Amino acid sequence: MTSLAVTHTGTAYPSGRRARDRFVLARRTSRQALDPLAHQGVVIEPERAADGTRVDSVTVFLTGRECPWRCVMCDLWTHTTAAITPRGAIPLQIASAIAAIRQAPAMPPVIKLYNAGSFFDNHAVPPQDDGAIAEALRPFTRVVVESHPSLVGDRTWRLRDLLTRDGRTTRLEVAMGLETAHPNALERLNKGITVESFAKAARALAEREVDLRVFLLIHPPFVPPEEQDIWLTRSIGVAFDCGATVVSLIPTRGGNGALEALAAQADFVAPSLIDIEQSAAIGLSALSLGTNARGRLFIDTWDIERFATCRRCALPRQARLTQLNLDQRLPPPLACDACGEVTPS
Hints:
Blueprint (H helix, E strand, L loop, with lengths): L3 E3 L5 E3 L2 H10 L15 E7 L5 E8 L27 H13 L8 E5 L15 H7 L5 E5 L7 H11 L6 E9 L3 H6 L6 H13 L3 E8 L9 H14 L4 E6 L6 H7 L8 H14 L9 E4 L11 H17 L18
Parallel strand pairs: 4-5, 5-6, 6-7, 7-8, 8-9, 9-10
Antiparallel strand pairs: 1-2, 3-4
Helix pairs in contact: 2-3, 7-9
């Protein structure tokens, strides 16, 4: 019999991974058909480097097999395939993306390969393709891939070695989602990690000179509204204590069905654009706390207009967050004559 964790509203949310998998899957919409030989887009944007300079960074959105974890907040599965990624597909996608990038005035030094899952998942990115992938990445000085903490291991070190052989100095960076350091919320996200297991993977990366980028959620489900700010501060501290050079705050997006079910039972409240600005201010303050204040804090501004309640100030607020990402300090506050909202500080 499936055991149930009962929320304060009386609505049952399953406990146990298999039951939660079913909860998530049952609320999905249909999956769009994707070509496994074609990437889903290329974006070039400036990013603040560790030395304070601005560098161009290119993100390639790869097409591959869906992640095996069924995180309750995830909507990335809509950008994946149900079938195992065929051999040769990922190098082909990367080559196509680089061909497009070469049309830009200059080749960006940083490339992010985001496959809506884990790069080290053998069903998403066949390991037989690692050599061809590393060879295609020769133009870049830094390569960022995303991974579930449990998949960090021998394949990670092999890719690092491929990127640095024959005198190359390409630096590998792995982006991992901690999401939140709130232990109960993290367990209920169905991600299959703990703060301790995340920290173990982070230590392995540091010991082998692989850089770490951490994703944290703004307004993750299961964290009480009145505790969101304090747990965001704690989560940022944990991420930097784990050796992160970058912490990226990602607003939790509804729309995957599961989050709507959690919202109905008051276990999830989507952030507003003002909440996101508040989180940015909290994040910059947290940079000066603890023993590791050398990292950078970014706000993910993709599709951020969906969180706006006022159309007149949405774009200026988005621009303000973009400026914050580049300068690593709070821009001047913004007050809107239409909605009356004032930027949190």
